[in-house]
Amino acid sequence: MGMKIVIVGGGTAGWMSAALLARACRGRVADIELIESAEIGTVGVGEATVPPIQVYNHYLDLDIREFIQKTAATFKLGIEFKDWTHIGHRYFHQFGPIGVELQGGVAFHQFWLKMRQMGETIPLEEFSPNAVAAYTGKFTLGKGDDPNPLAYAYHFDASLYALYLRDYAEKRGVKRQEGKIVSVQQHPETGFVTGLTLADGREIKGDFFLDCSGFRGLLIEETLKTGYEEWGQWLPCDRAVAVPSAGTGRLEPYTRSTARAAGWQWHIPLQHRTGNGYVYSSSHISDEQAAETLLANLEGKPLADPRFLKFTTGRRKKAWNKNVVAIGLSAGFIEPLESTSIHLIQTSLFRLLGLMPLPDFDQTSEDEFNRLCRIEMEHVRDFIILHYHAVERTDSDLWNHVRTMKIPEGLQYRIDMFRNRGRVARFNEQFLFVEGNWVPVMLGQNIIPRQYDPLVDAVEWSESRRILENIRTVCREKVAGMPTQEDFIARHCASPVAAMA
Ligand SMILES: Cc1cc2nc3c(=O)[nH]c(=O)nc-3n(C[C@H](O)[C@H](O)[C@H](O)COP(=O)(O)OP(=O)(O)OC[C@H]3O[C@@H](n4cnc5c(N)ncnc54)[C@H](O)[C@@H]3O)c2cc1C
Fold first, then answer.
1. Mean pLDDT over residues 349-366, rounded?
2. d(Cα 482, Cα 77) in Å, to the nearest integer?
3. How far is the CA of 11 from the centre of ligand 1 (A)?
4. Which domain holds residue 297?
5. Catalytic pick from 4, 70, 76, 322?
6. Which residue among 8, 15, 37, 43 is best mutated to probe the pocket of ligand 1, counting the most ligand atoms within 8 A of its Cβ?
7. Closest C-alpha to 211, from 326, 370, 352
8. For 187-215, how does the pLDDT look when each residue is reduced to its tens digit (9 = 90+)?
């Protein structure tokens, strides 16, 4: 065998890494060993994903029905944002397209803007099959002949997900060690990590290390002192309190995010329970008040005591340093408002596959990895800041701060461009959020362009208006024939875990 790769940590990041590397190496190329400590445990709260997770699942060649059943997963068509713009307001950030292209080169929302300017205020989401299905509780998988199936991701139980991937990885040769790492050995000259010692004296040597040890960054920070860039000036939330609650019988096929005085609350329906949490700024509310607010706003009875988590928003200055690559929380953290962390694990892993190290390390691979991680994290950061900044709320210190703060230049540029003509600046298009994401969030947060695209007027308005109505009708009709998510899951992929709940 060539190299020995050691993965430190068995949370979502550790087991996603182990499964992917096992699949990529196929029992050749590298030996893979993973160390995890039950005593330390995992964060265990990442439950909402975005559609590209299907790329990861596909790479692993998972049996999707089994994946859903084993992780008690449900389907997610997007995110509802309640009370963000102002209290009483809501909008939907759907996956998949809104409308269709009516005219080459002119985005659909430009026609919607003209309609709005002419006094018709039909919600944008009525032109999205995903949003219509979400709000009517419907879900189905596209059949082979459906050119526009619903775009979806999953909600799943994070602990069950790690167990599921562990089984996958171990079956493909990943060696697992249970134990607490108490010391790290480094090469005296290069500083490269050479081995780890567990509390019981076991020693584990390796050529390349993935640091999936969570926020602490056991190798990347505690050992290599890489440094961390903090983004709290734009994203002041630094705590979360999470609690699972009993399901209500309804499985809304979307994540709900409700803005609160000092942050926001998530609601994630799984097959066997609902995941809830309040992400908040500790400068604006106490832990006790946050927990009280969360418990007062549950739809089902709590199933455990509230669990508190602390975090510092930002990124590790270099996710790859020497022979250590940080994946997951050890590489940085941006609050889960758009469910991006698991996605960032996935993209880091595919990036690593594209730059797979050899024993004689190559600085350009490290630099390229770090360059792309930085751009990607900043891209996600700006998208999240948009949600906080473009608000009308004046009811608390947090909202007054984020509404009036100076934001990163790139984001300001995007907002200005959209406000002027409804156009989305096109850079970093290879990353997660594209025009179809920026538009519903910008409009949802009431950034209304001054003027629609002049090319809209190239088409006779009565004709455009007729097509708009047609799209709306097609969305409604397409969704009307779908089963509810509850029925769909009962028929195709009910989890035995749910039956036991
Ligand atoms: C409040 C909150 C909500 C979130 N919601 C979402 C979401 O909806 N969607 C999403 O995509 N992401 C979400 N995330 C992020 C997601 O939870 C993480 O990205 C994901 O769980 C990965 O965590 P991890 O594996 O990096 O770290 P952890 O889960 O912390 O795992 C660390 C591992 O390292 C091990 N370890 C640490 N030190 C040692 C040691 N000394 N010896 C041996 N082992 C050690 C631990 O035992 C553990 O196995 C959320 C995060 C938070 C904080």
1. 90
2. 14
3. 5
4. 239-310
5. 76
6. 43
7. 326
8. 999 999 999 999 999 999 999 999 999 99
